[in-house]
Amino acid sequence: MIRFDDVVKRFGDVVVLDELNFSVAPGEFVTLIGPSGSGKTTILRLLMTLEKVTSGQIFVDGECLSHMQRGSRLVPADEKYQRKVRQRIGMVFQQFNLFPNMKVLQNLTEAPIRSLGLSRAEAEERALELLELVGLTEKVNAHPSQLSGGQQQRVAIARALAMRPDMLLLDEVTSALDPELVAGVLALLKDIASSTDITFLCVTHEMNFARDVSDRVLMFDHGQIVEDAVPDKLFSEPDHERTRTFLRAVLERG
Amino acid sequence: MIWDWDYAWEVFPKIVGDGLRTAVVATVLGSLVAYTLGLVLALLRRSPIRVVSGITWAFIEFIRSTPLLVQIFFLFFVLPDIGLTLDPMTTGVIALGLHYATYTAEVYRAGIEAVPPGQWEAATALNLPRRRTWTAVILPQAVPRVLPALGNYTISMLKETPLLLMIGVLEIAGVARQVGSRAFRYVEPVTIAGVLFLVLSLAASLLVRWLERRVRYRN
């Protein structure tokens, strides 16, 4: 489903991702952990086409994100091609990024109508189902500014799901939340992960959640994968010293 | 120099009747041109096509670096040479609008840049078409917060309308001068003109303040 081939990402002289190779199978829940600045979020942003790779290639369902075939030549992807590939991918952000000028309902219907071409009635029906799923039916006519952080993030999750993505990218989705609101959002995500066949790529500092829901955990450091293992193995008996020191530091803190 | 109330009352209706209306019409129409054209310039300035953003930049710098009066003269006296003759009022509205559009373009630019990058990113993640991202996400957030700044340029424009008397459009100051020259008495008409501008500007300032409070409340 997702494949990174020798992906390098540099910001100026800073190497964020260093010849990275990994892949994610359809329906897998893969969590990326590691210290800040290790390149985890950049992976999600590259997939969402919010950043461009410096070199290497990313494939989504066998189609390259950055280049497309024209005749026999490989040329940089144009907007139309990118829109098609992007269609399968959804993203939930640390800062929610709801549209503050729209009510909750329009936040959920805007893209399905304008991007997928759904009718207003279809989009609204889908939106109401999703609001029920995230437990916010009564907020349908509220503005984002009237919601708590946890509620905003639930709406953002519903908004991403409204596009029926095959793949959902979760970028530290509970990091900006008050501690007492974190559990609810994580429980919701666990629920969605177990009841759908969406592929998840998740960056988080919530180690218990990662251990609980992931099929696989990738430990990152300095733009490279240090360790790639099932959660029980990685959290209980990691092979690498770097993973051990990282986990010890995180667990002591939290 | 004594104040003659009878004379003042005699000229007051004329200054208010002809002058005030012309000043307000020129300012309102000029502002509409400035608000629309300014937005267009701000968007062209951001164009990924180098030539387009470059030409827009040059145009903005050119208009800003030359006096409004020269631009008025150019439109009124030079354009007819290439077969484009506009009546004085139209010329005035276009000149004011064009001149101030280069300033409102900067205001819009600041407003657009103040929209958090996360909004663009969310629009990309949702695959919203580019045009729709502008009309439904970015501009509805950018424009309301710059309304007070736009309003301030309308107030400035109002105070520049007397320049139009150079091409025969008589607004408050123009009518005052005309009336004064007929009776060889300027104290009353010119004072009345000044007070009218003061009242208009103050009223408009209050409106802008009120807008500012509303915008701050909404954010």
UniProtKB/TrEMBL annotation, chain A:
<dbReference type="GO" id="GO:0016887">
    <property type="term" value="F:ATP hydrolysis activity"/>
</dbReference>
<keyword id="KW-0029">Amino-acid transport</keyword>
<dbReference type="GO" id="GO:0005886">
    <property type="term" value="C:plasma membrane"/>
</dbReference>
<keyword id="KW-0472">Membrane</keyword>
<dbReference type="GO" id="GO:0015424">
    <property type="term" value="F:ABC-type amino acid transporter activity"/>
</dbReference>
<dbReference type="InterPro" id="IPR030679">
    <property type="entry name" value="ABC_ATPase_HisP-typ"/>
</dbReference>
<keyword id="KW-0067">ATP-binding</keyword>
<dbReference type="InterPro" id="IPR050086">
    <property type="entry name" value="MetN_ABC_transporter-like"/>
</dbReference>
<dbReference type="InterPro" id="IPR003593">
    <property type="entry name" value="AAA+_ATPase"/>
</dbReference>
<dbReference type="GO" id="GO:0005524">
    <property type="term" value="F:ATP binding"/>
</dbReference>
<dbReference type="InterPro" id="IPR003439">
    <property type="entry name" value="ABC_transporter-like_ATP-bd"/>
</dbReference>
<keyword id="KW-1003">Cell membrane</keyword>
<keyword id="KW-0547">Nucleotide-binding</keyword>
<dbReference type="InterPro" id="IPR027417">
    <property type="entry name" value="P-loop_NTPase"/>
</dbReference>
<comment type="similarity">
    <text>Belongs to the ABC transporter superfamily.</text>
</comment>
<dbReference type="InterPro" id="IPR014343">
    <property type="entry name" value="Ectoine_EhuA"/>
</dbReference>
<feature type="domain" description="ABC transporter">
    <location>
        <begin position="2"/>
        <end position="247"/>
    </location>
</feature>
<keyword id="KW-0813">Transport</keyword>
<dbReference type="Pfam" id="PF00005">
    <property type="entry name" value="ABC_tran"/>
</dbReference>
<dbReference type="InterPro" id="IPR017871">
    <property type="entry name" value="ABC_transporter-like_CS"/>
</dbReference>
<protein>
    <submittedName>
        <fullName>Ectoine/hydroxyectoine ABC transporter ATP-binding protein EhuA</fullName>
    </submittedName>
</protein>
TrEMBL record, chain B:
<dbReference type="GO" id="GO:0006865">
    <property type="term" value="P:amino acid transport"/>
</dbReference>
<keyword id="KW-1003">Cell membrane</keyword>
<feature type="transmembrane region" description="Helical">
    <location>
        <begin position="20"/>
        <end position="44"/>
    </location>
</feature>
<keyword id="KW-0813">Transport</keyword>
<dbReference type="GO" id="GO:0022857">
    <property type="term" value="F:transmembrane transporter activity"/>
</dbReference>
<comment type="similarity">
    <text>Belongs to the binding-protein-dependent transport system permease family.</text>
</comment>
<feature type="transmembrane region" description="Helical">
    <location>
        <begin position="56"/>
        <end position="79"/>
    </location>
</feature>
<dbReference type="GO" id="GO:0043190">
    <property type="term" value="C:ATP-binding cassette (ABC) transporter complex"/>
</dbReference>
<feature type="domain" description="ABC transmembrane type-1">
    <location>
        <begin position="20"/>
        <end position="208"/>
    </location>
</feature>
<dbReference type="Pfam" id="PF00528">
    <property type="entry name" value="BPD_transp_1"/>
</dbReference>
<keyword id="KW-0812">Transmembrane</keyword>
<feature type="transmembrane region" description="Helical">
    <location>
        <begin position="190"/>
        <end position="211"/>
    </location>
</feature>
<keyword id="KW-0029">Amino-acid transport</keyword>
<protein>
    <submittedName>
        <fullName>Ectoine/hydroxyectoine ABC transporter permease subunit EhuD</fullName>
    </submittedName>
</protein>
<dbReference type="InterPro" id="IPR043429">
    <property type="entry name" value="ArtM/GltK/GlnP/TcyL/YhdX-like"/>
</dbReference>
<dbReference type="InterPro" id="IPR014341">
    <property type="entry name" value="Ectoine_EhuD"/>
</dbReference>
<dbReference type="InterPro" id="IPR010065">
    <property type="entry name" value="AA_ABC_transptr_permease_3TM"/>
</dbReference>
<dbReference type="InterPro" id="IPR035906">
    <property type="entry name" value="MetI-like_sf"/>
</dbReference>
<keyword id="KW-1133">Transmembrane helix</keyword>
<keyword id="KW-0472">Membrane</keyword>
<dbReference type="InterPro" id="IPR000515">
    <property type="entry name" value="MetI-like"/>
</dbReference>
